[in-house]
């Protein structure tokens, strides 16, 4: 059970990250809180999916995001005036995006450009680990740094790459929803 | 909110599992959970943690695609700094050989000394310390670059950008010089900081003494004094109190101090450290600010401007506009 919800989450929900992030940015004033909101949306949809995998992932994700924003606005009166102009006007869907054929190439491009933006040491370590396939101790030896240092930079690189991938727009995956439902069985 | 913490913890766990070689392109989370009881414990019952792990794991696995790129092996680049441990050992060994050779009056058929060169740089918001083979230390502030060259006769550092603190190992026979464009600093063994900007270079001496040279002349600075060298090479000396000294090097502790400083200048200072840049409207540029801030706490500073001073702060993408 846990495994199949994980698969659903990785295959169906994560590809919506860029669209979700755009939606949150458009409807929430504080940029700093976007990552937290996104995380909360993820936790909520994951929890919901544990009972029953949803038929329309995209609809669930955006309805959840909308409800979350509404909840926040109601709970924290302070931000209500400026945070959201008009709660009821919040759309539930965003437009379907881009062309699926380019997705994997644009992901590679996003990864590459993120790699270029990393601090030198993090970049070197990610390159040795991911492109040259060195082990942690080999990487440490090659660069003359300690293994804990390598590990710390791997963690950091991982977070940066996840953010970069989250900015790549993916196509709506309406078809995959039905496929993975079949795989689930009941 | 706990997102950042969940994400940091998740990345630390995954980096550890990755170090153990457990993460492959198709490794499922359930498998990782089954292999490590501690990890399973940490993950159990927390959907926040689970989704954070799934997201990072998926990204790290996608990053295998990077293998398609043709990227130079960073370990093969000629940047000895990256192997400073080795280089240091080699250098010490060489000096030992030379010292022994001289002491025994062996004729000078010792091979030419290897030269130590290195480049170090920090990104916006970073701070890094590096040790040189002869025992000196350089601490770089945000968005700074230095290059180092050490041979048998000289120790030369070029501060190409930004600000650095130097703790120089005492070697009377081999001067340590720092070239900061408008000014050159020559020392024998001491601790000092240099801040290189477009229009001026500021030098602050914490211990010992240094000679500073600009196009317009030179001066000797002792501990507790600072010198500002302007674009014409003029040197302006000042005495600093202990408090001034602490403040001048507060960046080493990740802090900045202001006393009666115009907002425009405060913004400029914050902007050195942060990706989110402050822009100050000219109507409010002359408001004077005092206080003590964390270099990365631009949000706290902005909150102070809006709550405390009643200024308006508008947010753009990585930009904060301050108006009346």
TrEMBL record, chain B:
Pfam families: FecR (PF04773)
Superkingdom, natural source: Bacteria
UniProt-listed PANTHER family: PERIPLASMIC SIGNAL SENSOR AND SIGMA FACTOR ACTIVATOR FECR-RELATED, PROTEIN FECR
Organism lineage string: Bacteria, Pseudomonadati, Pseudomonadota, Alphaproteobacteria, Maricaulales
TM regions (residue ranges): 85-103
Domain FecR protein residue range list: 119-211
Keywords, comma-separated and alphabetical: Membrane, Transmembrane, Transmembrane helix
Name assigned to this protein: DUF4974 domain-containing protein
Keyword Membrane: yes
InterPro entries: FecR, Ferrdict_sens_TM
The species this protein was found in: Marinicauda pacifica
GO MF assignments: sigma factor antagonist activity
